[in-house]
Amino acid sequence: MASVVTEKRARAFAHLDEARLGWFHLRAVLVSGVGFFADAYDIFVISQCLPMIYQVYYPSYVTGTYPAQYLNPSAAYNATASYTPQQALSSWASTGSNVHLDALLKASTSWGNLIGQLGFGYLGDKLGRKKMYGVELIIMVIATIGSAFSAPAVRGFDIVTILFIWRFFLGVGIGGDYPMSAVITSEFANVRYRGMLISAVFAMQGIGILVGGVVFVCTLTYMKSYIVQDYNNVDYVWRIALGVGIIPAIFAIYFRLTIPETPRFTVDVVGDTDKAEKDVEKVLQMNAVVDVTSNWGQEGVATKKVEVKQNDFFRYFSQWKHLKILLGCAYSWLALDIAWYGMSLNSSTMLGLINYNGPAKISGYTSTDPVTGATKTWSAFTDPSASCWDYFYQRAIGNIIIAVAGTVPGYWFTVALIEVLGRKPIQIGGFLIVAVMLAVMAGDWGYISVNTGAFVAVYTIAQFFYNFGPNATTFVYPGEVFPTRYRSTGHGISAAIGKVGAILGVQAVGPYFTSHTTTVLWVFCAIMVTGIFSTIILPETKGKTLEELSLEDNVIVEETAVEYVPEVKQESA
């Protein structure tokens, strides 16, 4: 019996593996990609929201003085005036222990990611991809609404605590999206374009980052007159920016909730080859229909027809040939995220270096006493005639420049070349080039930090190869190298370990980025180098089926049919 079932399984999978690239594939990428667009938007928009929140809710932390005569000619030539919240930014995040609270708030989504990736990863294998897909987006929508309407209690939690709680639950939903989207895309994909399809889903992260900057620019432009009049109006801006994140998620929920179960799960976990064969036929039919919005309600419920391998997680990963792959995926993601998140969520230093961190400094200003003629030359100070609006607008423009220059192109180079070069060369090359760029910045920071052209060149190259490199491939690899029954779990574990790296990069290293920039850059460089070695133990997955990569093609357990023999009662004498 098992041989017949094995043949059916092989035949069904062969149809998926050899299918032409079609409309069902495009639909799967769009449905998964829209979720990742929302994921990235929600994760990275917080770095622009927080300064606005601190400005409105902690205005007493605005510090610094400027020559009083600069704005008031009648003032004494040697008098100073204090900046107001209308003129300068709150320094709450850089004052005392607040630097660590700021880092915790930036990392709050990553803490939620960790839980979501482990939880949804496990449940995706336990309950099925279909049952869990869409639930993560519902969590994201609810948490995004909560984040956008966060407010301090009169007595109780302040806004930082409230926002942390909502961002944590948002992270749970985002975390669940990682294993679900990667595995579903992988299991429906054909062999030839599987890496391209998975990386295309992940590439929507770059679009989400870019759109985040655009939303801020548009909102700030519209609100300029209001903010220049009263800085408290930036309270609208960050709430609008957070709220926009639910729009793509809402559109994708229906399509995710109605996506079919993958035939691979139906066979290898449920044990129903007949149902899987019918579903494969339906996928191939839909692949030829020029309609990415089409859907179908799967008829019938998959039922167990044969015994399949199950509940052997620890036995499977106790074998070095399998364990080393899990370790390679997980550590590579950890190494990447330490530096990627450590730099991306602490962008103020980088934006300052490209002169997009607020109004320029005024240097060489001299005030004069109109009576005595005495003069005083002041050290550089920020233009007090500027508004806090200028700071926020400049930062939004700077984020767009960084995204367009290196981040977005890097993702799409991966999509275009992953099936040409392979996963392994792209990941190793990315780790190596980013390490070199970080070493260049760390080794000559004194020059680069004051030379905008040099900094932009080096930083753009680093951003490009983060994304035409391990930031994309660490997402692709775990969706390919594990067996079906543990593919979602394996991806979840790898991603969760990666988020441990993100937490370390933001909370353990991030607070010292400004004060110890060179040391932090050397640490990031060393960690990038270790990622090369963790990649070496991974296989090249280009051109191989998922069953070949799992190193375990036979998952059907031989069954022995037991013939029923009716009981014969002996007649009494």
Key features?
66% helix; two-stranded antiparallel ribbon; 573 residues; mainly alpha; two-stranded antiparallel sheet; 23 helices
Tell me what you see in this structure.
It contains 23 helices and 6 strands. The chain is elongated. Helix 8 packs across helix 20. Strand 4 (366-368) and strand 5 (375-377) form a beta hairpin. Helices cover 66% and strands 3% of the residues. Strands 1-2 form a two-stranded antiparallel ribbon. Strands 3-6 form a two-stranded antiparallel sheet. It has a two-stranded antiparallel ribbon with strand order 4-5. With 573 residues, it is mainly alpha-helical.
The amount of beta strand, in percent, is under 5%
Terminal CA distance: 44 Å
Q: Which percent range fits the helix content?
A: 55-70%
Give the helix tally. Answer: 23
Chain oligomer state = single chain
- Taken from the alpha-carbon principal axes, the silhouette is elongated
> What would you call the structural class?
mainly alpha
Query: Which spans have pLDDT < 50 for at least 5 consecutive residues?
Result: 559-573
Mean pLDDT: 87
Strand order of the largest sheet: 1-2
Radius of gyration: 28 Å
Number of strands: 6
Largest sheet: 2 strands, antiparallel
In sequence order, what are the helices and strands, one letter per element?
HHHEEHHHHHHHHHHHHEEEEHHHHHHHH
Give a quick summary of the entry.
The chain is mainly α and 573 residues long.
